[in-house]
Amino acid sequence: MNKPFSSIDILGIPFANATRNQFLDQLQGRIEHHQNTFVVTANPEIVMYARKDPAYRKLILTADFISPDGIGIVKASQTLKTPLPERVTGYDIFTHLLNWANQNKKSVYFVGAKPQVIKQLKLKLAQDFPNLQLTGAHDGYFKSDTEIVNVIEKQQPDIVFVATGFPNQEKFIAHNRHLTKGLWMGVGGSFDVFVGAVKRAPKWWQVHHLEWFYRLITDPRRLKRQLIIPQFMWKIHQLKK
Ligand code: UDP
């Protein structure tokens, strides 16, 4: 396939060398042309996970585009003297595509998050995005995915957002993406943030690139997961020319 962007390698993961707007334009164009697309938004945690799980790495390398989900990846690219233009976060792409889908009457399927969050998501979509065609929304705590997969295949949504957290969301997408001609993207905890079940850090923390630290101190369960970040930074430091 003809790749529109060059890629920048960070510890074996090729990131799309694109600005946020170039990235969004590309995705929207592909949706318009019914081109099947798999997007991964990868943070340092995902990069490190892929290093120790070759099967997961192989799977995310089948994505059409991998975007730098957060400042950690952008900083690493600068340290390695192959700078990426800016971060292109999952949540940002998610909300922009929702707006665009609403304006262009596109159809969307949502899977992931807790049942209560899905309930709120449906209400918010009906209120704020009345032109978006909701083809279905299912929570992410299912035993069998048969029902979900059948609806997606029947409804042929333009976009499928999967918010079950990594690595499961990427596995689900890689396994099922052939069912539609649309875009499939893993968006982690985005449904929670979107409905306000989880708050993003206040602006000050975001502006100072400390959102990760805010999340850490407000949700200490993340501590174990975030301990991987210094390891990521150390690996990058070792590669520094
Ligand atoms: N989740 C889910 N099914 C599961 C486990 C988790 O749908 O079996 C959801 C969870 O409710 C949350 C999201 O997956 O909405 C993962 O959020 P997290 O903040 O961990 O994502 P990340 O940090 O990877 O963006």
Automatic annotation (TrEMBL):
Record's protein name: N-acetylglucosaminyldiphosphoundecaprenol N-acetyl-beta-D-mannosaminyltransferase
An annotated GO BP: teichoic acid biosynthetic process
EC number: 2.4.1.187
Enzyme category, top tier: transferase
Family of this protein: Belongs to the glycosyltransferase 26 family. TagA/TarA subfamily.
Taxonomic source organism: Pediococcus damnosus
Key words, A-Z: Cell wall biogenesis/degradation, Glycosyltransferase, Teichoic acid biosynthesis, Transferase
GO molecular function: N-acetylglucosaminyldiphosphoundecaprenol N-acetyl-beta-D-mannosaminyltransferase activity
UniProt keyword annotation of Cell wall biogenesis/degradation present: yes
Pathway(s) annotated for this protein in UniProt: Cell wall biogenesis; teichoic acid biosynthesis
NCBIfam families according to UniProt: wecG_tagA_cpsF
Record function comment: Catalyzes the conversion of GlcNAc-PP-undecaprenol into ManNAc-GlcNAc-PP-undecaprenol, the first committed lipid intermediate in the de novo synthesis of teichoic acid.
HAMAP family: TagA_TarA (MF_02070)
Chemical reaction(s) catalysed: UDP-N-acetyl-alpha-D-mannosamine + N-acetyl-alpha-D-glucosaminyl-di-trans,octa-cis-undecaprenyl diphosphate = N-acetyl-beta-D-mannosaminyl-(1->4)-N-acetyl-alpha-D-glucosaminyl di-trans,octa-cis-undecaprenyl diphosphate + UDP + H(+)
Keyword Transferase: yes
